[in-house]
Amino acid sequence: MAGKRKLQHFAEMATFPHVFQPQLEDVFDKDYRLKGKWAADVFRNNHPIVLELGCGKGEYTVGMARQFPEKNFIGIDIKGARMWRGAKTALEEKLSNVAFLRSRIEFITACFGVNEIDEIWITFPDPQMKDRREKKRLTGPLFIERYKQFLKAEGAIHLKTDSDFFYQFSREECEKHAYAVIDFSEDLYGQDIHKMKNEMRSILKIQTHYEKLFMDKGHLIHYLKFKPHVKKGNKTK
Ligand SMILES: C[S@@+](CC[C@H](N)C(=O)[O-])C[C@H]1O[C@@H](n2cnc3c(N)ncnc32)[C@H](O)[C@@H]1O
Q: Looking at residue 25, which CATH number applies to its domain?
């Protein structure tokens, strides 16, 4: 039964005008047709574009789009069944500033051009704790170098995670590569969220599917904001 529903959702998603599902041959060793053209061809405005990586059901993509109609949001994930939920909600709420891209994040430089993106959110990524999975970590150097190819010079990356391991790994990467750490919290919902400016607080209060699961288990939520474009004078280890 669940399988049948999944197939219905896949079929429905193929008809959604704001969902893009490139095939491997569209991104492997070549540029996707929308690279550098998201503003003109998808959103039809010049508003800033924010990405959510590993968006799952797209709670951040949709939640931020509701709060900031003057920005555009693109949720990226490889799992279509999860993405359907966010895509459907965006359609039902007539949110014209939302798109979804179903792709492996490994192909992200085929999808976005230089300076096309203003900000990136990484929400509850798989921590990839095994040494042999290190290259799969979304805040590892391989991925950050990819993001820098399309993220504006002042663009920030926001990470929300319950994983102590992934949080520490990301902090260490910031230090190692002299990324500028702008903000961090090891227990976001302890005291720290109350010290933040209203706008940031209302963004950080958005909770994802996985976040709720982890909070139910009593995990603390960690937050890190950093800018990966290194300026002269930033210290490295
Ligand atoms: C733990 S889930 C978190 C989902 C959502 N952000 C949340 O907080 O509920 C991690 C998500 O990242 C996606 N993901 C992991 N690695 C990916 C990759 N290399 N490319 C695309 N999606 C990926 C998975 O499909 C999954 O939906």
A: 3.40.50.150
